[in-house]
Amino acid sequence: MTTTLDIVDTAVKIGLGALIAGITSYVITLRNQGFERQKEIEVERRNLSKELALTIEKTNHLIDESAFHFHQLDYQESKKCIISAEREISSAGALANLLGSDDLVNAVDEMAELVFDIYKEFNKDSPDEGRLHDLDNDIKEKKKLVYPHIRDAYCAAST
């Protein structure tokens, strides 16, 4: 025959079992959500790194296109390209800031200064072709210094 004590004993066991299962489920869910959020952050950082690399390349392409138009004596089109390059390098600066690496931000800022120097040279009454050539070479050198930082940001997002 079942006694009141047996019923209470069984109820307590079921209650404790449900409580343990509930707490375990809650802890596992929190842990999994943390992992999922971390994966989302990693994917976003990798995407930002890729977008930054493409933006740097687009900036470089626009500078090359600007130089082409300059040598064709199409100064208006040359200025349009360099203005677009300034816009792109500004976007690159924003992306670098989102990635959070001070070294990357500084390297992109140095490139941005060179792009702005090209813009200032184009706006002179008589742009110095030698100076423009030197600035173009400086940008290419700076770009080489930016890529290791982008790679580091990409790899950091993948760990």
Task: Describe this protein with a few key phrases.
Four Helix Bundle (Hemerythrin (Met), subunit A), mainly alpha, 159 residues
Task: Describe the 3D structure.
The chain is an all-alpha fold and 159 residues long. It has a single domain (45-157), classed as Four Helix Bundle (Hemerythrin (Met), subunit A). The protein is built from four helices and no strands. The protein has helices at residues 4-71, 75-99, 102-122, 129-157. The longest helix has 68 residues, at 4-71. The protein is rod-shaped, with a radius of gyration of 29 Å. The mean pLDDT is 89.
CATH class: Mainly Alpha
* Proportion of residues in β-strands: under 5%
CATH fold call = Four Helix Bundle (Hemerythrin (Met), subunit A)
Which segments are poorly predicted (pLDDT under 50) over 5 or more consecutive residues?
none
Mean pLDDT: 89
Secondary-structure element order, as H and E? HHHH
> Which percent range fits the helix content?
over 70%
What's the oligomerization state?
single chain
Summarize the biggest pleated sheet. Answer: none
General shape: rod-shaped
The helix-and-strand class reads mainly alpha
Count of DSSP H/I helices: 4
CATH superfamily, by name, is IL-4 antagonist (De novo design) like domain
Distance between the termini: 62 Å
Q: How many beta-strand runs?
A: 0
CATH architecture: Up-down Bundle
Radius of gyration: 29 Å
How many domains? The number is 1
Write the layout of secondary structure elements.
Layout: H1 4-71, H2 75-99, H3 102-122, H4 129-157
